[in-house]
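Here is an idea for our session: we take a single protein and study its fold together. Start from the sequence, derive the backbone structure tokens from it, and show both lines together. Once you have written the record down, we can walk along the chain together:
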Amino acid sequence: MGAEHRLHKNEENDTPIIIEFEHGSDNVAVDGKDFLYTVLQIGVPERAREIVRAVFGEKGLWYADIAWASAEQSARIAIGDLMIHDHEVVSAHYANVLTIAGRHNTRFQNAFTVGMPITSLEIVDVYRLIAPPPPLPPPDISLADVK
């Protein structure tokens, strides 16, 4: 068996490592785990429509309206699965400037998943974030706003 390496994050080993890379937009999707899927599943359309429009654009609102029209949670999730891959939705979410408070009070303006692999040619920089991160900005919107 080969050697095994495990990273254990603890008080002595908690320095974030940042990897900056450039990657084509064809293989990028919105990461909907901390906000979008919850909005599609339990959001009240009358409260959530303008928020979805602001964060995911007109095309995102189009998908959300279709999801909310179904009483089936599995259908709502399936619509979300289509939505996160739509280039118009990805572009609109990339342009979002509102700070979102998602599940577990996660704060972000946009979140994406990127198809692998990331080649060494795409890596721009790798560094440790030694200074403490800046304080979290206050949220502009939260999941409580859409329920």
Notes: Residues 1-9 have pLDDT under 50 and may be disordered.
